[in-house]
Design a protein that fits this description.
Length: 207
């Protein structure tokens, strides 16, 4: 009589714990999704950084137009943003891209964060509450530095420290931010990936 009862009890325990782990997995997924949705410094910020790094703005007006197209609004009145400051920042951001070790990449990025960001604060200037990592009233160049520094840090911490690099195709050194599902991006674009595949194929034929 005791053996069937023991079996039933074990089955119930297994069912109970399997439901518990299933619930925990679902909740973890919802927590992660909520974090991503509440993060305005994510993929858009890193993509803007990549765009500016690969094609440096030629003028202050060019910088403003491209930033506004990406959703970063210029509110500086009549004064133009400091283009030299932005270009110098992009040079230093490029050092983060080229860092080979995660520790070195973190060290360089932490320096940019220390210089460019402020304590987190809640804001609803877009109609929905979210977090800014900068002071409220600052010059446009400083705003851009804070946005890119914070966005890069969140991208690397959330997706992986390796998900930032330069194109592996011969003759191309464009920057890319890896947002792929498997985290194995090596090229800045499908065109470079296809061209490099053709080159390798021809090299094998010659060999």
């Amino acid at each position: 009589m005791t053996t069937p009862s023991l079996v039933v009890w074990l089955e119930r325990v297994c069912q109970k714990w399997s439901c518990w782990w299933w619930w925990l997995a679902v909740m973890a997924s919802s927590w992660c999704n909520a974090f991503v949705q509440l993060n305005p410094y994510g993929q858009d910020a890193i993509e803007l950084a990549v765009d500016l790094a690969n094609s440096r703005p030629a003028s202050a007006d060019d910088l403003v137009e491209r930033c506004e197209a990406a959703g970063v609004v210029f509110e500086g009145g009549t004064s133009a943003p400091d283009l030299d400051e932005v270009l110098e920042f992009l040079d230093r951001w490029g050092e983060v891209v080229d860092a080979e070790l995660p520790e070195r990449r973190a060290e360089l990025l932490n320096a940019l964060l220390a210089e460019s960001t402020a304590h987190p604060r809640l804001t609803a200037h877009t109609g929905s509450w979210h977090i800014h990592y900068r002071d409220t009233v600052i010059p446009f160049a400083r705003k851009l530095r804070a946005l890119i520094s914070s966005g890069t840090a969140l991208h690397l911490a959330g997706r992986g420290m390796h998900r930032l690099g330069r194109c592996a195709a011969d003759g191309c050194d464009r920057v890319f931010a890896d947002t792929s599902r498997n985290g194995r991006q090596r090229y800045c674009s499908p065109a470079c990936a296809n061209r490099d595949a053709v080159r390798r194929h021809r090299a094998r034929q010659v060999a």
